[in-house]
């Protein structure tokens, strides 16, 4: 069992992975090792000296949002965690095609990566359309749990921001309930459009375009107190 007692990571809805295309397989061998975040305590300055800020995307899927944010913010170091090999293969393709030098990846559980980060080092965290685990008996597998919220609060700087998005109504309520009671996070919305309309700096994700949920996408931005 990992140190913070979180349940083991389970794969949601992916029985079989797709074959990796030869070019992506090549990049997994050549590019990925050069941008991989080593296991253990993370030395951010060693990953990219002089980064203006450090951002983290949890469960980046195919990596299109992460790559777009990295392209728009070249002086920001963007960390990504994703356990799914096909997602990592897609992300390294984006990094290669767009010539990004500010993305670092860990293929694995973002909860471990969070624990490996120093205190108050992150300025932004993105959790976009996480696996919904709709059945009540699977809710404990959801990423948003008290332990993860505490780790997010520890790793974010005061004034840092967390963005959570989902198109599953029950998960939206679940996340709001847990994040608004956490004294460390303040929901920044002032009117319904603040969560109903995608934020101006949002980049559409692959999962979002599939519209598999049961409600329109909701975007919740929180500020670390
Ligand atoms: C529904 S997909 C959404 C992917 C992407 N954010 C998007 O919107 O297209 C959820 C992603 O979270 C990843 N994931 C699940 N548990 C995770 C964990 N503990 N750490 C990191 N990623 C995780 C899954 O592998 C999957 O790629």
Number of helices: 10
Sequence of strands across the biggest β-sheet: 3-2-1-4-5-7-6
Shape: globular
Catalogue the ligands. S-adenosylmethionine
Structural class: alpha/beta
Which percent range describes the beta-strand content? 15-25%
Number of DSSP E strands? 7
SSE run: HHHEHEHEHEHEHEHHE
Q: Determine Rg (CA atoms, Å).
A: 17 Å
Q: What would your notes on this structure say?
A:
The structure is a single chain. The chain is α/β, with parallel strands linked by helices and 225 residues long. It is 35% helix and 20% strand. The protein has ten helices and seven strands. The protein has a seven-stranded mixed beta sheet with strand order 3-2-1-4-5-7-6, sandwiched between helices. Helix 7 links the parallel strand 4 and strand 5 (156-166). Helix 1 (22-30) crosses helix 5 (85-98) and helix 4 runs parallel beside helix 5 (85-98). It is globular. The structure holds S-adenosylmethionine (SAM). S-adenosylmethionine binds next to helix 6 and helix 10.
